TrEMBL record:
Record-linked PANTHER family: ACETYL-COENZYME A SYNTHETASE (PTHR24095), ACETYL-COENZYME A SYNTHETASE 1 (PTHR24095:SF14)
Protein's name according to its UniProt entry: Acetyl-coenzyme A synthetase
UniProt xrefs under PROSITE patterns: AMP_BINDING
Alphabetized UniProt keyword annotations: Acetylation, ATP-binding, Ligase, Magnesium, Metal-binding, Nucleotide-binding
Residue ranges constituting the Acetyl-coenzyme A synthetase N-terminal domain according to the UniProt record: 24-81
Name of the encoding gene: acs
Organism: Phenylobacterium glaciei
Ranges for domain AMP-dependent synthetase/ligase: 83-466
InterPro entries (UniProt xref): Ac_CoA_lig, ACAS_N, AMP-bd_C, AMP-bd_C_sf, AMP-binding_CS, AMP-dep_synth/lig_dom, ANL_N_sf
Reaction equations catalysed: acetate + ATP + CoA = acetyl-CoA + AMP + diphosphate
């Protein structure tokens, strides 16, 4: 590993950037001495209908939980992302849409995006949607996805976007959890030349959701899809003759903006709740700061809007900053593995932001597919979603960025709304694989298992000791779960669930989840979710799922499965169970390995010892540790003997 290598801030960057090294230090100091002043200035970037007089009222100790930012301020998110840009930037492109096929179909200027958003908002109102109602969005990466989100924001509805890779069961669970009675979807999605049966998935999900009264279907492929009379309607029909202006709903800063479901270490996915003022402040502020965004530049974040990265850095952050944002429907290797780089040249992209898993996959194909493109427009690169190994970082820097583009390795979570830690291109020397330092206002601490604070160069669990505007406010409908998940492990501190090392220069190196969450291709999966999918199969008695290191995906999914007594373990059943998880959760959750096990290693009290299973999956067999406390130590021999090489 070239861990020692440090890349200093290029002189030109120190000069052009909004924040250089001194300014960073000054901002960090000001948050300490004048927090209200600092956070007031940060929020000044938005247009407020009624200005706030209270800045923050946050405590990580109170119970039930209570976090308020800019609490008496009034604003509307869609106005901040659209209306306020119309005078000066109405004809600037807001969204460049790059379709799967590569034939642009819908570049939208700010004026057009505003009109489309108002139309969709009026359609929603006509269907009876009111302030506070939850609207489920299950769309491919087409501009209507951003339009639907902004339309909800305009009328004060709360959106819940579901990634197009989720299965009917996963959709149903999310619709039921937030009690949403309206779904916006498309006939089909299109990715890498393959269609995704979105409407069919919704139809199947809705068999379990009698409360849904309206399904709005956007036409993407124009495939023939069944339409249920009285419930389903095509958006193209509904929007006929609908006005392209819509009065924005004045929203309190703490009114909910969206719910986004994410996996945790236990139970079903949690509805992470974000509110209006603080979220938008943080998304817009970090988009400008971390990417040093300057007006007129083209910004491309490759994430799907079904994940938080798409919410904050395809839609809300860039649009609040009047940026030109690229929305890409396709995949990195279709039609060829030069696709990313060709799109960069085609749209003169200045900042490119993607996941390490994509970089690792493309790196495997060598330099040639990159080098045959120009990439002259690029000035900054970014990564997000998982730790990046120094080899991939160095390739990204040398080959994709021609050695001249800084890389911002941004660490954050669905729960944190937007970036927490990242190098700043004009302020921070880069160390490949490190997310450098927390942004001004973010207070990191490393603690040991007992909660003792660790100082200096050390490793521990990463906690945050004070609030920031973009922090989630609750788990939708379950304050207790919010408190238990994030604030009960270490009293008075937000626990990220991540392990982390701090080096002698104060740089942070995220080492990965320390809970039962695994990170597969930058997608978060709870092992408990996969286990409950497996045991819902009639052949399965018990299952335990762990992650293992995977060259491309970062982590792979390794399942240990005990079959019911009369079931014969066969290769066919193994393949069937992989397909089963795909269908139950979604294709991205498909197991890499299913190993049949006559028994799982359990303590005498019946707890599965995952530590041992992890070691077996990792093929770290000399480190199984003490197995003498197991109820039946002999099961380990069988697990080791039948380990499936990956
Ligand atoms: C934005 C996003 C969050 C988890 C997080 C951590 C991992 C994200 C990272 C990173 C190392 C980075 N993670 N960014 N690990 N370096 N730059 O990914 O949100 O899907 O909620 O995942 O992803 O483990 O806790 P989310």
């Amino acid at each position: 590993m070239s861990e020692g290598e440090v890349f200093p801030v290029p002189a030109a960057w120190a000069k052009r950037a909004k924040m250089n090294a001194q300014a960073y230090e000054a901002a960090v100091a000001r948050v300490e001495t004048d927090p209200d002043g600092y956070w007031t200035d940060v929020a000044g970037r938005l247009d407020w209908i009624a200005p706030f007089t209270q800045v923050k009222d946050t405590s990580f100790h109170k119970h039930p939980f209570h976090i308020r930012w800019y609490a008496d301020g009034v604003l509307n998110v869609s106005v901040n992302c659209l209306d306020r840009h119309l005078d000066t930037r109405g004809d600037q492109v807001a969204i460049i849409w790059e379709s799967d096929e590569g034939t642009p179909w819908d570049n939208l200027t700010y004026r057009q995006l505003h009109a489309e958003t108002c139309r969709m908002a009026n359609v929603l109102k006509a269907r009876g949607v009111q302030k506070g109602d939850r609207v489920t969005i299950y769309l491919p990466m087409i501009p209507q996805a951003a339009v639907a989100m902004l339309a909800c924001a305009r009328i004060g509805a709360v959106h819940s976007v579901i990634f197009g890779g989720f299965s009917p069961d996963s959709i149903a669970g999310r619709i039921q959890d937030c009690d949403s009675r309206i779904v916006i979807t498309a006939d089909e999605g299109l990715r890498g030349g393959k269609t995704v049966p979105l409407k069919r998935n919704v139809d199947e999900a809705l068999e379990q959701c009698p409360g849904v009264t309206d399904v709005i279907v956007v036409r993407r492929t124009r495939a023939d899809v069944p339409m249920k009379a009285g419930r389903d309607a095509f958006y193209s029909d509904l929007k006929q003759g609908v006005a392209d202006t819509c009065e924005p709903e004045p929203m309190n800063a703490e009114d909910p903006l969206f719910i986004l479901y994410t996996s945790g270490s236990t139970g079903k996915p949690k509805g992470v709740l974000h509110t209006t003022g603080g979220y938008l402040v943080w998304a817009a502020h970090t988009h400008e700061l971390v990417f040093d965004y300057k007006p007129g530049e083209v910004f491309w974040c490759t994430a799907d809007v079904g994940w938080v990265t798409g919410h904050s850095y395809v839609v809300y952050g860039p649009l609040a900053n009047a940026a030109t944002t690229v929305m890409f429907e396709g995949v990195p290797n279709y039609p060829t593995n030069s696709r990313f780089w060709e799109v960069i040249d085609k749209h003169k992209v200045n900042t490119f932001y993607t996941a390490p898993t994509a970089i690792r996959a493309l790196m495997r194909d060598g330099d040639e597919p990159v080098l045959k493109t120009s990439r002259k427009s690029l000035r900054l690169l970014g990564t997000v979603g998982e730790p990046i190994n120094p080899e991939a970082w160095l390739w990204y820097h040398r080959v994709v960025g021609d050695g001249r583009c800084p890389i911002v390795d941004t660490y954050w979570q669905t729960e944190t709304g937007a970036c927490l830690a990242s190098p700043l291109p004009g302020a921070t020397a880069l160390k490949p694989g490190s997310c450098a330092k927390p942004l001004p206002g973010i207070k990191f601490e490393l603690v040991d298992a007992e909660g003792q604070v660790l100082h200096g160069a050390t490793s521990g669990n990463l906690v945050i000791t004070d609030s920031w505007p973009g922090q989630m406010r609750s788990v939708y409908g379950d304050h207790q779960r919010f408190f238990d998940t994030y604030f009960s492990t270490y009293a008075g501190k937000y626990f990220t669930g991540d392990g982390c090392r701090r080096d002698e220069d104060g740089y942070y190196w995220i080492t990965g989840r320390v809970d039962d969450v695994i990170n597969v291709s930058g997608h978060r999966l709870g092992t408990a979710e996969i286990e409950s999918a497996l045991v819902s199969n009639e052949n399965v008695a018990e299952a335990a799922v762990v992650g293992f290191p995977h060259d491309i995906k970062g982590q792979g999914v390794y399942c240990f499965v005990t079959l019911k007594a009369d079931v014969v373990p066969t290769d066919i059943l193994q393949a069937e169970l992989k397909g089963w998880v795909r269908r139950e959760i979604g294709p991205f959750a498909a197991p890499d390995v299913v190993q049949f096990a006559p028994g799982l290693p359990k303590t005498r009290s019946g707890k599965i010892m995952r530590r041992i299973l992890r070691k077996i999956a990792e093929n770290d067999l000399s480190n199984l540790g003490d197995i003498s406390t197991l109820a039946d130590p002999s099961v380990v021999d069988d697990l080791v003997k039948n380990r499936i090489g990956s």
